[in-house]
Design brief:
This protein is an all-alpha fold. The chain is 82% helix and 0% strand. It is built from 5 helices and no strands. It is elongated.
Length: 156
Amino acid sequence: MQALTRSLNIVAALLFAAALILVNAQIVCRFILSISVPWTEEVSRLVFVWLAFLGAAVGAREGSLIVIDTLPEVIGSRWDVWIGPVVRLFSLAVVLFLFFGSIPLVRSVWPTTLSTVDWISNGWAYLAFTTSFGLMALFAVEPLVRDLLRLARRRA
């Protein structure tokens, strides 16, 4: 899991650098050189989509996504031992639903290409969804197993 996390961080940093280079190249070409390079806008948009969805996976891993924590605060830590695994299991089910639901979407748009770069499939943008949901599912399994083991130890 640590190797996956490290790799994800490296990929996110490389994507950020690519986005920075592409956007700056677009600015220089358009406003300084007065030439239009339309492919930089489309490719940078694709890179930003990947950054956003990989960032969501990182947020899920770190537990920094927006959550509604009213119920845990009301019921207290005593019941959190029981509610926590249920919530994590439900969250995993939703993420898996989105993961499997995104696969046909990727397949359906894969034959189409970007308008300015005809060798890059539109499917790459949609594959970011699938990748993100897959990573979120992987990252959700560890805390769920930990909660279930803690619950089993408590019952024993």
